[in-house]
Structure formats: C-alpha cells, structure tokens
Specification:
This protein is an all-beta fold. About 0% of the residues lie in helices and about 35% in strands. The protein has strands spanning about 5-10, 15, 20-25, 30-35, 40, 55, 60-65, 70, 75-80, 90, 95-100, 105-110, 115-120, 125-130, 165, 175-180, 185-190, 195-200. The chain has a two-stranded antiparallel ribbon with strand order 1-2. A hairpin with a 4-residue loop joins strand 1 and strand 2.
C-alpha cells in the first residue's frame, strides 16, 4: 500500500490512515506507527502502535518530543518551549521580563536580583526600594542608612521638615542637615551671670 495508507484484509484494498497518523498499520485507521507531528499529534513513546493525539500542556510546562509528555519549565517561567526549556517565553508571577539574546524568549528577574530592591507590597511584578539600607536607588526621597525619625530622613525614608538630604547613591547613604542655619529664638539671663541662648533647632 502507498505511504499514508494501510491494507484492509477484509476488503483487500488500501485505506487511508487517519489524519493523526503519518503512517499506520491497521486494522483501524488510528493504529498509527508514526504520528502526524506537523499538526501536533503524538503518541505514548512506549507504544509501537497506537492512536496519536494532540497533547496540550498546562502553563508552566512544555511538550517534550523525546518522551511525548509535558515537563516542567524553569521555576521563573510561566511558559517556555521545547527548544529552550530552561528559558522563558513569558515570566511567572513576581518576575520582570527583559529582552533575551534569543528571538521569542525573555530573561526573567525577580526583585531580589536587583541591588537595593525588594518585593513590593502589591506583589506581582512590583519592586520597592529598600528603606534604611544606606543605598539610595532614586525611588525614595532619601536613605540615610537607618529607619529612625528626627535625623532628617524619616523611618519611611521621607525628608523631614526643616532638613535637606543629599549625597546618596547606589553605593552610599544620604547625609541630612538642617535646611536653614539655626537662629537664636530666645535669650535668658540669670543673676549668677549665666546667659542661656535658645536656638530654633538643634545645634549638636
């Protein structure tokens, strides 16, 4: 019988294999020897003869031609393919997508991969600058290396009223100082020849 057909012993003629088969042996048209993989049909790799079916893999897995089964993608991938199973075509939750050196693929990075950042409170692909680590990445208003109030950079890394902060970068903390020089707000003179000056802000 010609390629893509099988011999029907009862009618002594050649019949076409089912569309899922590339070649078949009968007695059924779906008794495939080889599958029509061009259209996505595969059969259990452990069987010589069997019906070929389209296998749809769930998210986070890819179809492996060698085992004719779905195998897990790398943990940072939501989707991947059999050509580069350890690389992603789409990133999983909590990962950012960056251009890859391979067409159709992306490189996936988490917040912890970026110096000075952590996972944002909203989750997903949201990163937040770490407050108080002494690294000013440019998202927060300031970072003086602590989470104390009253020193110019607040516990939430906001510049406090009456202060200015500068000098911070991706390797160094900010230095905060009064925004205006202190001025004498009051004077007290005591009989023991003691003069006390009160300033508008701390001068220590």
């Amino acid at each position: 019988c010609p390629y893509g057909t099988y011999a029907d012993q009862g009618e002594s003629k050649c019949l076409h294999c089912a569309h899922c088969c590339k070649t078949c042996i009968g007695p059924l048209s779906t008794d495939c020897l080889k599958c029509n993989t061009v259209d996505g049909y595969y059969k259990n790799s452990g069987k010589r003869v069997g019906e070929c079916k389209i296998i749809i893999c769930q998210r986070g897995t890819y179809f492996d031609n060698e085992t004719a089964s779905c195998l897990p993608c790398s943990y940072e991938c939501e989707t991947c393919n059999s050509t580069y199973p350890t690389r992603c075509t789409k990133c999983a939750w909590n990962y950012f997508e960056f251009p890859s050196d391979k067409k159709g693929l992306v490189d996936c990075k988490s917040c912890s991969d970026f110096k000075g950042f952590q996972k944002g409170k909203t989750g997903g692909s949201s990163c937040a600058e770490i407050c108080g680590d002494g690294l000013h990445m440019g998202v927060l208003a300031c970072d003086d290396g602590n989470t104390l109030d009253g020193d110019g950079c607040s516990s939430s890394c906001e510049i406090e009223p009456g202060f200015e902060c500068s000098g911070g970068n991706i390797t160094s903390p900010d230095k905060c100082r009064p925004a205006f020089p202190p001025r004498i707000s009051d004077v007290a003179y005591y009989g023991n020849k003691t003069l006390v000056l009160y300033f508008s802000q701390s001068v220590i």
